[in-house]
Write a structure and sequence with these properties.
The protein has 226 residues and is an alpha/beta fold. Helices cover 39% and strands 23% of the residues. The chain has one domain: Vaccinia Virus protein VP39 (Rossmann fold, 3-Layer(aba) Sandwich). The chain is globular.
Length: 226
């Protein structure tokens, strides 16, 4: 916990207000309208998605690793979605049994996790066979020139907002065993040019649970880990 993370959590809603008004909220609404059944949202932040889950969601669980964000998330959940379960946990180490959820939601999260491949394998593990990952993520551009700019500017992005602007997130989703079933390439509203490339879509977890067990096993800490 640092002063930087405290300030970031305290000002996050204000920082994203213009983007939300310019179209980010609409992107959230369109994505979350697809959520149903037992739903897990990873990296819930301050709870920007809570108002957009519909009646087809029978159980909502939201995780958030940062304690300062978690406080705001908990307050918002208590006020607007009191049946929501809120837990502190990183996406790389989800405290749930295999096949616990019908859908997992990730919005502007996979850019900032410490270990993106591991986070996606954990998401795959807790999804039921053929469960759905619903994602909204800013990503590395397919335009080589813009991708080079993202590489140059990434240190600033990480310093200011604590995430990477140049991650090949779609490739990592597929490498974790997901089959992408819907994909829209769009832009993040009111963002610098090197942060704008964004994907919105859904992906299906594999039917073969054995594949997910193998993927999880490859992530176990080595004997030299801390």
């Amino acid at each position: 916990m640092t002063i930087r993370t405290m300030l970031f959590a305290a000002t996050y809603d204000l920082q994203t207000k213009r983007a939300e008004q310019a179209g980010l909220t609409a992107l959230r609404q369109g994505l979350l309208a697809q959520a149903s059944g037992r739903v897990l949202e990873v990296g819930g932040g301050t709870g920007a998605n809570l108002a957009h889950y519909g009646p087809t969601v029978t159980r909502l669980t939201v995780t958030e690793p940062d304690i300062h964000m978690l406080k705001r998330l908990t307050r918002r959940a208590q006020a607007h979605a009191p049946d929501t379960t809120v837990l502190r946990a990183p996406a790389e180490d989800l405290p749930f049994e295999d096949s616990s959820f019908d859908a997992v939601v990730s919005t502007l999260v996979l850019c900032g996790v410490d270990d993106q491949p591991r986070a996606l394998r954990e998401i795959c593990r807790v999804l039921r066979p053929a469960g759905r990952l619903l994602f909204l993520e800013h990503v590395r551009s397919a335009d080589p020139e813009l991708a080079k700019k993202q590489d140059r500017m990434n240190w600033i992005n990480r310093l200011v907002v604590g995430c990477d602007c140049n991650r090949p997130t779609l490739n990592t989703i597929e490498a974790a065993g997901f089959s992408v079933t819907a994909l829209e390439n769009t832009t993040l509203p009111k963002a610098p040019s090197f942060v704008r490339p964004t994907i919105v879509g859904s992906a299906m977890a594999p039917l073969d649970t054995g594949l997910r067990t193998v993927a999880r096993g490859s992530d176990e800490p080595s004997a030299t880990g801390h």
